[in-house]
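A.,

Following up on our hallway conversation. Structure tokens first:
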């Protein structure tokens, strides 16, 4: 029983970490695209962190 719970927790943790990495990657891509369009660092920061 303990092993089953451990495995479920490992899977849940892995999924959450994957989502976190995906959000970070998405944010990085958005930042790159905004910079390519000519937005300054301050503008990009204000858009992503309102």
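Then the amino acids I'd put at each of the 50 positions:
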């Amino acid at each position: 029983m303990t092993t089953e719970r451990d495995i479920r927790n490992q899977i849940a943790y892995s999924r959450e970490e994957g989502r976190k990495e995906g959000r970070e990657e998405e944010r990085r891509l958005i930042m790159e695209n905004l910079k390519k369009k000519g937005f300054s660092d301050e503008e990009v920061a204000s858009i992503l962190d309102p």
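The helical segments are 2-36, 41-48. Curious whether your intuition agrees with the design.

B.
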